[in-house]
Amino acid sequence: MARDEAPKEKHVPVQIEFCGVTKMYGAVAAVRDVSLTVSRGEFLTILGPSGSGKTTALMLLAGFVAPSSGDILIDGKSVAAVPSYRRDQGIVFQSYALFPHLSVRRNLEFPLEMRGVAAADRAGRVTRFLDRVHLTDFGDRLPWQLSGGQQQRVALARALIADPPVFLLDEPLGALDRHLREQMQDEIRSLHKEFGKTTICVTHDQEEALTLSDRIIVMRSGRIEQIGTPEGLYDRPATAFVANFLGEANIFEDPAFKIEADATQPSGTLAMIRPERIRLAVATGPGRADTDQRQSVIGTVTKMIYAGPLRKYHVSIGKSVLIVRQHVASGQEIFDRGDEVRLDWLRSDVRFVSA
Amino acid sequence: MKTLQKLGRRPIVLTAPAFVLLIAVLGIPMVQLLLTSLNAPAFSLSNYQGFFEQTSNVRVLFQTVKISVVTTAICLIIGYPTAYLIVSASKHVRIALIVLVLIPWLTSGLVRTYAWVVILGDHGLINNLLLNLGLISSPVPLIYNRLAVYIGMVHIMLPMMILPLLSVMQGIDTSLLAAARSMGAGPFLAFWRVFLPLSLPGIRSGSLLVFVVCLGFYVTPQALGGLGDAMLSTFIASQVASSFNLAPTAAAAFILLGIALVVLSIFGLDVSGSQGRAARATRKSLPSPLPSFAALTRFLKDLAAPYRAKRWTAQLYSARGDSRLSSIVGAVFVTLVMAYLLFPGLIVVMMSFSGGPALEFPPSSLSLKWYRAFLGDPSWTGAFWNSIQIAVTVAILSTILGTLAAYGFNRTSRRVRSVLTMAILAPITFPAIVVGIATYFGLLKLGLLGTRSGLVLAHSTGAITSVVVIVLATLANFDQRLERAAQSMRAAPIQVFMRVTLPLILPGIIGGAVFAFIGSFDEVIITSLVSGFDMQTLPLKMLENIRQEIDPTIAAVGSLLTLMPLLWLMILYATWWWSKSRLQQLSAKPPA
């Protein structure tokens, strides 16, 4: 499927390339035989649980650790042996790593100074970037005098100010509360649009990955589990791991339960359906009009969780329990523990994933 | 060539200068002394046998260990509650109390010993007071006995016990105690089951420190004790000066070192780690060593459970009387401890202003005559300048070498680091007299005995160690991600160090320099062995005078030295304040 692959039709040159990169720590492989390409201007997110090797992948790219085998190419040149300070990249660190002894202005000046930019040019550029991240009046403050969101914006500005071609983000929003996180996601998206940098972001937050990225790499124990667009990954996960890590998934593991699905589905051993694809209705009510395209079963509600705009139900069918999400809408039936319900879903919404 | 280049990139290389100095001054002579004591190349244990065959030696050895153990125990019994009360005091009181503990710690041990001579002596403060009041007709023997030794040694060691306890206790998360209380543990039980186990690392390092320092210490027992209170180090020191055959002395020193090492290896010393790491490490090693003991305590706890269950229901929601009494008891206790720590110094300061022909307390008239005597006597001022020059040189040398070494350690793998750290800590974990003997031997071989350079080298071993410990602790709090951030902005390693690392660890480096200076300026044990006849330092001159008890000028010197810690604290505070205000200035200044 075209949307699962890199947007090659634009014919943008490949900028970053991992060729069979492995990083061993003693006998443990933090990253194992990873190959991938990133195109110029692309926003790529490396997503995975802790210990999946995603941070090591970023550290390899940043030049803080050297690969045990394999090669890393930037613009076609091998950088495996190039120390970090001879690479041209801007990094936003987890918890920002703002220099505590330097003012915001001096922090922003630092990368310019290291690149030998003249003092007069520096001042103008810093002012412009301070304006850009809405911190015009904060230049003389020290980092600890800023709020978390402000520190984050300084870190973004500092990474972008020297105009590096590659922009790396390490868990950029992990330290912020939910509200600020959404604001900063907007900020990062608009900065990416404005500067068009090749951006690689490492995170364990699936929502961040889904909303920001052009493509997502899901990593699991040092390997790439799947690469794809956010929609492609969410809609067509290849494995049960990806299905569960990106959103919630109902995976039918009870062989007694017969799943009907379209024959055109890609092969996989386990049937999977997303909770929001399932409809709930009163068990004794009439069937739907389009029943020929739907599978329908009767189950019992074992749990109801109220979550603001939606309700989450656990419904048991035989040995399996299905999770169902229903958006709250006026006139909708509300069920409670013990209620008999009819569940139905489109056969075309069923996916098959490997274990 | 390639291996050389590779080596050059390794941070461990930075520790080399410090190690070269340590090995030349201390390491090689240690090995040679060990061989001498074993009668190498013939190798026999005859020197050790000889030592144990003389009952007087064994008695002194036993006495040394006993005095050290008792002193450590008293320090712990007084120090633990003191530290606990300091930590639980309000912020301002806590800071004031910490300063009051720091002042005696930074004061020369010699002066503090001298103060006790003045207080306890036959014509000292207490006897004079009692005589004047007519309560006694002849002086009570307060000095030159075991009690005086304990009073003086505990006085000197107590800050060394309190400070590690404080640093660990301050790191204990108070919400843990709140959590224990919310689960129904009363104040005592919360302390016993949560606070005490978490403060164990402090107990351990404090006790080890005090014990090992006591083992090698002889100035105080010699000045305050009788003939029967001699420590092994006194015996060793006198042997170095009088005997030409080094072998028996070396054997005695290694016996002392052996005791220290056995104790250290049983309890394990972790001076370098941050408190958090130390706490975690002990918690891991706690349960295993005595399984039967653990089983016993668990059994006892199970026995107590029904009682506790009954009490829990009985006391549920019952209001509790306030704890005013306990806070009054606490305040009185802390006040007494502080008086014990500070009073002797105060007495010396006050007496130094007395106008009478001899020292007296309280002074009948005020004058500066003893200060004038100090300034007018070239032997005193000469010694003073000698000490200042040596201490400044030591501070500069050891700050540079120590900072390099600490930085190197900080960047090395943990396994290498722990081995090398043990080695670099030797000068302060070995009994002072053993270090003194080895240094004496080392400087003898280098032909530097009795020279200023020799003294600088001798003092630098310990000074480097304190710089390493302090700078390492500072580096442990330094966020290495800042260096990575600087690197990612194209700062080369040297730029990273100068622009990011150095400014942020500067307070630690200055602190290290101050401690290096103090260590050298107050050093007396090693100095007395290696100074020869020509080099006179202030502590040596004082030691001479305490023994002879003739020249009251020593009160003026002592008073100056007692006031010095205030100067140190001001320097340390100024450093902290300066680095903070410099930050503000930097940030206020528009970019050039």
UniProtKB/TrEMBL annotation, chain B:
What is the superkingdom listed in this entry's lineage? Bacteria
Q: State its location(s).
A: Cell membrane
Where primarily located?
membrane
Q: Which InterPro entries match?
A: MetI-like (IPR000515), MetI-like_sf (IPR035906)
State what protein this is by name.
ABC transporter, permease
Q: Which CDD domains match?
A: TM_PBP2
Family membership noted in the UniProt record:
Belongs to the binding-protein-dependent transport system permease family. CysTW subfamily.
- UniProt source species: Mesorhizobium escarrei
Q: Can the keyword Cell membrane be found in this entry's annotation?
A: yes
Bilayer topology term: Multi-pass membrane protein
Would the keyword Membrane be found if you checked this record's keyword annotation? yes
Q: Which keywords does the record carry?
A: Cell membrane, Membrane, Transmembrane, Transmembrane helix, Transport
| Domain named ABC transmembrane type-1: residues | 61-268, 384-572
Kindly give the Pfam families that the UniProt entry links to this protein: BPD_transp_1
Where does the sequence pass through the membrane?
12-35, 60-80, 92-108, 114-135, 147-169, 175-196, 208-227, 247-269, 328-353, 384-407, 419-443, 455-475, 496-518, 555-578
